[in-house]
Amino acid sequence: MSQFRQIDSQFLASPQITVADVATAKALGVALIVNNRPEDESDDQTPGAEIAAAAQAAGIAYVAIPVTHAGFSMPQVEALQQALAQVGDAPVLAYCRSGTRSTLLWALAQAANGANPFEIAAKAAAGGYDITPIRAQVDILSARAGG
């Protein structure tokens, strides 16, 4: 079973999940699962199609927004913003290999919505993640959004 880490009241980040973890997500009230892993990133990952099928069977929405080690793009940030907006305040579980890329993408999406960079960093840190690698981008996005 994967470790779901609470980042804020809506967002959970996790290392790679399994089909069995979808039931745990359902029990927590998760309305959306976000897959941030590219397919075939490693031999031990559960294919996204299997997670998507389990999510659908559980009545949980699913979206894939793969993030490679090459970094983040605005279309990825915008895709997460849209996905989060579609579920309102309902809990969201995002996963990748370690949860880091999911958390960093969340941080960029929050900044693009105008959230305070210091609060974003504190929430990520409370969940066990460090946004230092993207902090400059968080600051820029937040400033552009009027945060």
From TrEMBL:
It comes from the Bacteria. InterPro entries: BLH_phosphatase-like (IPR005939), Prot-tyrosine_phosphatase-like (IPR029021). Residues 4-112 form the Beta-lactamase hydrolase-like protein phosphatase-like domain. SUPFAM superfamilies: (Phosphotyrosine protein) phosphatases II. The keyword Transport does not apply. Keywords: Transferase. GO terms for molecular function: transferase activity. This is TIGR01244 family sulfur transferase. It comes from Novosphingobium pokkalii.
